[in-house]
Amino acid sequence: MTAHDSAINPAKLSDNDPKDKQTYEVRVFSPGAVDPKEFSFDKHLTVAEAAAQAAAAFGISADNPTLAKGAKVLDRGRQLVAAGVRDDDDLELVDTGGGV
Question: What is the pLDDT at residue 2?
């Protein structure tokens, strides 16, 4: 065993590291729908792209759909990971002018 071998942390080699996960499983709620829909979004998708996919799945034609996490409306130009979205989040579909 070399000095380098002893410095390897087996936990960092795990495939279960949430930092390495490339997709987020989230639930999206829409004010016009009774039940949320589940989505698997690439974490590098923009909020606008994810919101457009969610709007289409709900059958909503909104001009500028976006997503909200709690009371915070997410920046449409940011990637999901940069906007603070995490695996297993509950998000709400909204229009930049208000609720969809």
Answer: 46
Lookup: tokens for 40 = 């698997």
All domains of the chain, ordered by start, with CATH? 21-99 (3.10.20.90)
User: Contact 58/33 with Cβ under 8 angstroms?
Assistant: yes
Return d(Cα 28, Cα 68) in angstroms, integer: 9
The tokens for 7 are: 């410095």
Q: Output the pTM of the full model.
A: 0.77
Question: What tokens does 48 get?
Answer: 């606008």
- Residue with the larger pLDDT of the pair 60 and 97: 60
